[in-house]
Amino acid sequence: MATINATVSVNSNDLTSNTLALSKTMTMTKAGTNTGLEFTSGLVRRTFTSTNHVDLITAGAQNYGTPTASDSGSASKVYIKNTGSDSTQYFEVGLGTSSGSGSATADSIGGTHLALGRLYGGDWMLIPYHGKATVGDITVQPSTAEKMTVEYIIFFE
Amino acid sequence: MATTTASLALTSTDLFADSLSISTSHQLNKAGTTIGLDQTTGLNKVYLTATTNVDMFTVPGAIKNGKKSHVYLAKVSTDETEYIVVSVGDKVIGRLYAQDFLWMPWNQQAQHISDLEIAPSVATGMNVEYMIIHEGIVLTTATDS
Questions:
Q1: Sign of CA pseudo-dihedral B68, B93, B88, B43
Q2: B13 — contact with chain A (CB < 8 Å)?
Q3: Which superfamily, per CATH, for A38-156?
Q4: ipTM of this model?
Q5: pLDDT digits (tens, 9 = 90+) for A27-85
Q6: Which of A92, A140, B86, B88 is the most exposed place for a label (fewest CB within 10 A)?
Q7: pTM of the entire structure?
C-alpha cells in the first residue's frame, strides 16, 4: 500500500462578507478499507490540435484496475488539468462514449455520454473514478483546434 | 467581482520510486473571462438518514448552459465502509468514502440531465458537505400547494 494525500484549499476574502478559507485533506484508500491505493497511471500529458470529441481515458479491460460490474464499485481517483493559460479556451470534460468527431454525442438520460463541465486555462478537477467499461470513459473536447494541452493522473486499486 | 482561489496539493513518498508532488492553483473566473466568480451557495452541511438518491442541486432548465460553476463535495463521516454515490443526472461519477472529496467543474447544460445527485450507502446517518461557486443557478419556482 501507499500513502497518497490530496489537499484542496479554497480561499477568498471578498466572495462573501465572511472570509472563505476551506481546506480539506484526504488520504486515498481502497474501497471500504483503510488501505491506501497503490497503483497509478503516472502523470500523463496530452496535446490536442483538433476539436474532435475523444476519449482521454478509456476504461475497462484491466486498463486501470479490475473493472467491476457496478459503475460505482471502486475508490479510484482522477486528476485532470488544462495546463493552458488562455481564459477563453477550454476542454469540455465528460463521461461515457466519445463520438470521435467534432460533435459530442447528445447528452440524454439513458444516453451514452454526459458532459460534466469545462476546464478553462489553469482549471483542474479531482473526482472519483469507477472505471467501468464504456460508461467510465472520460472524454474531452477542446474548444479550439489551436494547440491545447491537458495533464491527468489516475490513482486506482 | 471577487477573487477566489482553488489550490490542490497531491503528494506521496511511497507510491513509486520517485516522490509524487503535484501542486496547482487557479483563480475561479466566469466563463471565457478573467472576471472572478461572485456567487456561491456557501458551505452546506447535511446529515442524511436514508439511502434515497437525492438532488443536491436541480437544473430546472438550460438557461445557465455554458456558465461556469465549480463544485466541492465531501463525505465527512469517518466510517471507511460507508460511502456516497455521486451522479450527474443518471451518470455515476463514482463513490466518495470516508473523508473523500471532489472538486469539479459543473455545466448546467440541460434540464435534470445535469442535476447533481448523491445517494448514501447506509441509512444510519452520514454527514456530507458541499459548496458551489458559480455565475448563476436557477432557483425552482415556488409551489404552495
A1: negative
A2: yes
A3: Jelly Rolls (2.60.120.10)
A4: 0.96
A5: 999 999 999 999 999 999 999 999 999 999 988 766 676 555 555 578 999 999 999 99
A6: A92
A7: 0.95
